[in-house]
Amino acid sequence: MKIAENDMPFELPLDRECNVIDFHPSGIWAIEKACGILSHPNRNGENKRVLLHSSYDFDLEKYHWVDAKGNEREFYLVHRLDSATSGLILGVSSFNVAEKLKAAFLNRDVKKTYFAIVAYNGRPVRPIWKDFLQKNPSKGKIRVTSGKTGDSAITSVSMQRKTPTRFGNLALLELKPKTGRTHQLRVQCANRKLPIIGDRTYGNFELNRKISKATKVQRICLHASQISFSIKVNGESIQWEAESAMPRAFARLLH
Q1: In the chain, domain spans
Q2: Residue partners of 68: CB distance under 8 A and separation at least 6
Q3: Which residues contact 8 (CB under 8 A, 6 or more apart)?
Q4: 57 is catalytic
Q5: Mind listing the pLDDT tens digit for each residue in 87-145?
Q6: How far apart are CA 119 and CA 215, in angstroms?
Q7: Of 15, 22, 82, 131, which one is the catalytic site residue?
Q8: For the chain, which terminal residue's Cβ has fewer other Cβ atoms within 10 angstroms, N or C?
Q9: Is it true that domain 114-215 has CATH number 3.30.2350.10?
Q10: Which CATH class is domain 5-107?
């Protein structure tokens, strides 16, 4: 659902495939990001599509621009989504609120829910996944591996649906990460022989090609569906929840 422009204090210069789906009067925006869109520009200046068509300050983690009326606008990112992942991403137009919300993410006080379609191996899915993840940059790209050391990654997992298809058994997983590591959900699924459909880094490449050719679903099937949090700003309590519907492409694979 797209929120009406007159419900917002000003318009964001969003990419054409991204929408504001909710807004809180304290200056918090919930945006539905399309897959293939970067949360912010790359430092190397690669010409790729990004969330907002404006300048970006990497030190302050904010977009900034001058609108048509000459007003200076700011939009702070408080977390990220992989470019391949679709769904909810939050931004804030108030520095004070942004700092409070960043702290909530850092302290794991923000609840997030994702949905993923995976190739299902038939084994029971444990409700809690724990791993140690390490980032390994190579040639400008990041690949994450798991081992006995690294950053702790914890996710709560629930099987929502199992579906036999012409491509084998697929499953819809509800994933609730307790930590926010780079590529966390993608690597944790792959580690358990449950590769996310369409994942070009950690997935089953042969299966991805078959599904893409037959269904025209040419994306990773990972979607950030829900975010909720409670923060205090200047003594006022803000409780908020935003939700993004599952993409239609998911239904095509699970019918």
Answers
A1: 5-107, 114-215
A2: none
A3: 20, 23, 29
A4: no
A5: 999 999 999 999 999 999 999 999 999 999 999 999 999 999 999 999 987 766 789 99
A6: 15
A7: 82
A8: C
A9: yes
A10: alpha beta
